[in-house]
Every structure is written in C-alpha cells, then in structure tokens.
Amino acid sequence: MNISILERTLHFKKPARTSRGAYTEHKIYILTISDEESKRFGMGECAPLPDLSCDRHAYPSMEAVGKLIETAIASEDYTEYLRPYPALLFALESAMFDYQKNPLLYDTPFALGEEGIPANGLIWMSDYDEMLDQVKKKLCMGFRCIKLKIGAIAWEEELRLIEKIRSRFSADSLQLRVDANGGFKPEEAMQKLDQLAKWGIHSIEQPILAKWQQGEDGSWDMMAELCRNTPIPIALDEELIGVNHADQRQALLDYIRPQYIVVKPTLHGGVTGSMEWINQASKRGIGSWITSALESNIGLKNVALLAARIYGPKVNFAQGLGTGLLYTDNIDQDIELRGHRLWVKK
Description:
Elements: E1 2-18, E2 21-35, E3 40-46, H1 62-74, H2 78-81, H3 86-100, H4 103-106, E4 117-118, E5 121-123, H5 128-140, E6 145-149, H6 155-168, E7 175-179, H7 186-197, E8 203-205, H8 221-229, E9 234-236, H9 246-256, E10 260-263, H10 265-268, H11 270-283, E11 287-290, H12 297-311, E12 335-338, E13 341-344
Parallel strand pairs: 5-6, 6-7, 7-8, 8-9, 9-10, 10-11
Antiparallel strand pairs: 1-2, 2-3, 4-13, 12-13
Helix pairs in contact: 3-11, 5-6, 9-11
C-alpha cells in the first residue's frame, strides 16, 4: 500500500465573500492510497481554510503533510494522533474508507447511486441585486432551502432581500437559513435576531464571534445567553473549531446548549470527530446537519458519503453540499447536482 500526496491550488469563479473577507483561491492536498497488485486505490482531501482551521499552519508543504501522515500511521491509533489536525484526519480517513470501500460509507443508497441528498442553495455575499439574482437562479434550479451569507451589505438591505424572498415564498414552501459568520456585535445581536424572526428564518449560523476568535478573554457566556433567549434557532459553526477532544465537546454543548450544530469534517474532526459531535448533540436534543468547507469535489463527495450514513436512508433535511460549482478548475468526481439534490453517478 502506497500513499502519495499532490498539491493543488483551486481558483474561485468569483471571490467567495463572508463577513471575514473573500477567498479567491484555495490550496489543497490530495491524498491517494494505492496498491499496484490489487489495482485498488482511495482518495481524500486535506483542505484547511487559511483563517479558520485550527490546523491551518500545519501544512506548509507536501513534505510536512507526508511527515505527519508517516508519524500518524506509525502510532497506535492514527485517528487519535491526528485529533489536532482535522483537515488531514478527514483526508486520511476518507482515503482509507475509499481504498477499502468500507461499508460504513460505501453501502448506502446514496453511495450506490440510488438516492440523492437534498442540498441548500448557498447565496454568497454581494450587493443587493447580485444576491437577489443568485436567489432567483437557485429557486429556478429547484432548491427548497436557501442559505444566505449575511454581513456584507447594509443591514437594512439584507432585511429587504429577506422580505423580498418571503413575499414570494412562505416558510412552508422555502426554508431560509442565514449565516452571519460571527459578524454581529454582541450588543446588537439580540435586536438583529428579533428583526430576523418576523421572516420565518429556520436558523442562523454563528451570529457572534466564537470564543477562540474573541481574544484571550473570550468566553462562551454571550453565545450561551443568546441561545437561551433567541427568537430563532442558533446553529454553531466556527464555535466548534479547535474543540478536538470528547470531553471538550461535551462541555461546550452542555454550557452553550445551541439549537443546532453545523458539522464540517475538514474543520471539526474528520469522519471520527464529526460522528462524535453529532452523537453527543443528539443525546442532548440538539439538531445537526453536515456541510462542506470549500473542498474540491473529492472532499465534497466524502462529506456527502458521511451525511448519507448519518442521516440516511432517505435524507430529507438539506445538507450543505451545494459547493461543487465554485471553482474554475474543480476536480472531476462521480457526483453531480440534479436540481437541488446531490447524486453519485451510476
């Protein structure tokens, strides 16, 4: 069994803007496990995000990635060794599962091409007219769940956009999620949540900065208070980054008590960590869904395979899998969007 590493830089068709800034390119590492004699192979993707991943500084070169893999495999348990490196853990786990065609991920209706997974339609930050145009295109494609990145334009304009959507589509016909990426100031967060509540918002992701983004004096206190009093459900995303051990995860969920968590294997612990997060959340009555983190189609497929195992068969809750068309130079895989559902091609 051989492991090879390839470095690639993906280029966005348009800058991917959030309240933190914009991405124009994304450096990734592709892991391939192969065996010449049996002709078996498996692929995974290590795709840390420069300003988000807790392990963002761990992969300056292919040599550094190779050294980490070598040390991890030589350890007693590579999944345990790589807990501090979720992007690489997800890549290595994915490649291993693919190489083995492990039934945990490869024996589901989705993996067999028999069932598609509903995805949310992601609306990137832009000016009012461009965001409205994105919404119209997603609705024409058949999406029944729209996720708006908010925080790029004037708040009144964003509310006007949401009002425009709701004037045409009720909450019963279109699920509307918003993602603030920590863009609300703590002192204004509750007022903005109240303003959003009148429009039948399904949930808001990360309204204020995560503890680790707040500096040395950061805490979970404000987020916990928001979750106790919010008029719309709050979903944690960035808050989960860097919380890599089981006892830490349980402590966070117990203290903040969010309504949802949004799990990204690249950021939140690979296959092992994602299942751990979702299992612990479920025990506490906290909902969840899985989403990609700007990976290529290699990572996107592996995220979808995991979503199908956790929430299937017949996944009926929109997952964050609508990122396959972001790049000019994406990597071909046997997946495709058909309307609002992601499918494995037969």
